Amino acid sequence: MLVPISWLKEYIDFELSPDELAEQLNLTGTAVESIKHLGEGLENVRVGQLIDVKPHPDADKLSVTTVYIGRPETLQIICGAKNIKTGDKVPVALIGAHLPNGVEIKAAKIRGVTSQGMLCSQAELKVGSDASGIYILPRDVEVGVPFAQAMGLDDTILDLEITPNRPDSLAMIGIAREVGAITGNKLHKPIVSLRESTEKAADVTGVEILDPDLCPRYTARLIRGVKVGPSPTWMRQRLQKAGMRPINNIVDTTNYVMLETGQPLHAFDFDTLHGRRIIVRKAKNGEHLTTLDGVIRELDESMLVIADAQRPVALGGIMGGGDTEVSEKTVDILLESAYFEPKSIMRTSRNLGLLSEASARFEKGADPNGVVYAADRAAQLMAEIAGGSVSQGIIDAYPKAIRPRRLPLRTDRVNAILGTRLSLEEIINILKRLELSVEIVEGTTDMWVTIPTFRPDLEREIDLIEEVARIYGYNNIESTLPESSGKQGGLNLRQRIAESVKGRLVASGLSEIITYSFIDPRDVDKLQIPEGDPFRWFVRLMNPLSEGLSVLRTTLLANLLKVLKYNVNRGQYDVQVFEIGHVFWHEEGKELPDEETMLGIALTGAWRPDEWYEKGRAIDFFDLKGVIDSVMDEINVTNLSVRQFTHPALHPGRSAELLIGDESIGFFGELHPDAQAAFDMPRAYVAELNFNKLIDKARVEKIFVEIPKYPAISLDIAVLVDESVIHEQLVELIEAEGKPILEQARLFDLYTGKGVPEGKKSMAYSMIFRAPGRTLTDEEALEARERIVNRLSKELGAEIRA
User: Fold this and answer.
1) Which H helix or E strand runs over 721?
2) What local confidence, expressed as pLDDT, does residue 483 receive?
3) 335 HSE (CA, 13 A, CB side)
4) Mean pLDDT of 172-186
């Protein structure tokens, strides 16, 4: 919510600077997102009036103007705009001015004629987007005064973040009440004094509520003989500062009072209402209403409408209808001020995809007992600025009054919760500053607190204690350690393993990310996932935040790739991230979905940047495999193997499956080129592993291995095999034949090309032999090597390379 300081001071006196006020609001729970000082760069801009406009003697497209700026002398200014004429009031930038757009104004001679300043457009002053001509000011502005003062720009705007449980703070009076509670100063609500005509509103119109559960209260005021036109400058300026567009004096009044009181209002053109009465009812299935935004909306019986004798004329609490809107021809106004049930407003607003300033307030909970004040306040303003006559009496349909609730509050409990020593009098003082009335239980320090209906968030004693803490000041509460039973907390085994995995990934250069558990189902299309795949077993949300977050994620890959793309689009090309999170699948035929914890990894760009001593290197498949191996080492996983694997999201020749024993743990590899194109991103390498299975296979205990006492013998072997033979086949046979003296077999070369027959490949292994309790002889090592060669030749057709 945007709060202009000058407007706020209409209701509360305070000497705090904008920065001090923002700090105090932050400390009491009303977050200030930003502070905007209007008028910066406008210090040397004044309101001037053109007293002469004539052509430049030596330039067809320029004019020589004489401008009066409230001083004895006038200024001569050259101007190229064509929208000016004698008598216009315009902003004049004086010599020495530094405008918001960065231009410095200096004396100049243009085609031999002196120019002593500049006439400005809206865009040059950054008070609007119009750069087509000079900004022609309203006729009622005073000549010679600073432009910022004349246009109400000598002000500061606070942008407040209002929490959903504080609808009372969506109003200038509500914020003023908070400031009053902070400073101890008294709130000044505008005094409403209506001069009513002799005509009784109840004789002319009426209100009937057919569904009091959805609309507990509806009031109406009748204002006759209005003249619809522009609002006065002060009202337009306040609305604009608060982020609203002025429309006309009637609509602007309803918006102004809504911003002032928090009570949404709606003005009907009374002459367009059939039967000249209001019926509050549920819509009928298939009914239609064209709302003020020009959209024809189909209604159903769950929606509340405001109707006349024949048709719906507004969506209750959300938006009015186009057929009854106020226009320049409107003469008589029926003014609505009502209270609607919050859940109904929220449901209808979401179902129709229609959010408005009114619905935002009603769905959080407006004040049912503030509707009359708001209606009277708006009627008074309409009479003042639109020349209307207010009919006698307000029509108030209130079948079942909503009363203020009463809550108990114990002084001892306040101090026990907060760790303070506040007296009964101090607590009462704080509550009264919040406009909460207090009744002390005789002979005790306990009390009953009456909660006004503008504070629906106060439901329990603990809520009142929080109010005391807010206004007393969290910064004034002494920090103390809570009492402890002596039990020590800590991570369980699975949590410790998870933390060690995160630590190893971070040490490997990756950054941990946390993304939404929701995804766009279209992202699964981008991953090239076919129908029937578990990645498409979606759990759909009944009421999603948006279409792009409409299903629970079935994979971490989509969000990981979006993070890569987000960074790449902003010039961060080398990105390595991981996430440990939940995924969800709902297999057809199952009552409940499955949930699993997964580890996702995504890498793109260079593994390391260019340095003076070496060039950088792009990430490849083996970098990703190395990261995974590092994780396996960290948690002591054994019996690990990798085999070729095809996955629709991965490059068919650069992907693999990870197994522990015979159990699949996940997959990894290069992103499929089609998926890469669909996400519009550079080459990336991804992995998704079942984290729960990894933890189950992890070994926490560290096994001590003594440094070998006896020397090892290293022998190499290079063999020619068919291209279809994979590394795992060779290693399995080498290890089987090399037992028990083979300690390690490592592939150190893979070659195809010149000297190797077509359809073949050369694979070279380094083998380390060692006897555990003695010195191994060369003959024993060579004999083991010979057995290995024979086994490879027999089972795989391998040929020894010279």
Assistant:
1) strand 713-722
2) 65
3) 38
4) 95
DSSP letter (8 states) at residue 98: B
Q: What is the 3-state secondary structure (H, E, C) of 83-110?
A: CCCCCCEEEEEECCCECCCCCECCCEEE
Structure tokens at 339: 């209270």
Tokens of 37: 């000082």
Helix (H) or strand (E) holding 307: strand 304-307
What token pair was written down for 83? Answer: 């929208």
- Looking at residue 482, its pLDDT comes to 67
Question: And the tokens for 12?
Answer: 């509360």
What DSSP character marks residue 121? -
Q: To the nearest whole number, what is the mean pLDDT of the chain?
A: 92
Residue 625: which residues within 8 A CB-CB, separation 6 or more? 642, 656, 668
pLDDT score at 773? 86
Q: Which pair of structure tokens corresponds to residue 119?
A: 């006439």
Give the number of other Cβ atoms within 10 Å of residue 108's Cβ. 14
| Residues near 555 by beta carbon (within 8 Å), at least 6 away in sequence | 524, 527, 535, 583, 598, 600, 688
| pLDDT band, very low/low/confident/very high, at 642 (cuts 50, 70, 90) | confident
pLDDT, residue 548, reads: 81
Tokens at 375, concatenated: 């209606």
Which residue from 788, 789, 769, 772 is spatially nearest to 780, judged by alpha carbons? Answer: 769
Q: What are phi and psi of 304, to 5 degrees?
A: -90, 130
- Residue 152 region by backbone torsions, left for phi larger than 0, else alpha for psi between -120 and 50, else beta: left
Tokens of 93: 């930038």
Task: Say which residues have a Cβ less than 8 Å from residue 486's Cβ, sequence separation at least 6.
Answer: none
Q: What is the pLDDT of residues 616-636, one digit of tens each?
A: 889 999 999 999 999 999 998
- The number of C-alpha atoms within 13 Å of 486 and in the hemisphere containing its C-beta is 0
| The length of the chain, given as a count of residues | 802
Q: Is the pLDDT of residue 226 over 70?
A: yes
The number of C-alpha atoms within 13 Å of 362 and in the hemisphere containing its C-beta is 31
Residue 783 CA to residue 676 CA, distance in Å, equals 51
Burial (CB < 10 A; 0-12, 13-18, 19+), residue 635, is: middle
Which residues does residue 312 pair with via DSSP β-bridges, in sequence order? 307
Task: Decide the pairing of beta strands 389-392 and 196-200.
Answer: parallel
- Grouping H, G, I as helix, E, B as strand and the rest as coil, residue 788 is helix
- Checking if the pLDDT of 325 tops 80, the result is yes
**Helical pair 411-418 and 424-433, crossing angle rounded to 10 deg:** 90
**435 CA to centre of own chain:** 33
For 588, which DSSP code?
T
Q: Where are the beta strands (DSSP E) in 170-248?
A: 196-200, 207-209, 217-224
What is the tens place of the pLDDT at every residue in 64-109? 999 999 877 799 999 999 999 999 999 999 999 999 888 899 999 9
In the structure encoding, which two tokens stand for residue 237, read together? 């300026």
pLDDT tens-digit series, residues 385-432: 999 899 999 999 999 899 999 999 999 999 999 999 999 999 999 999
pLDDT at position 152: 84
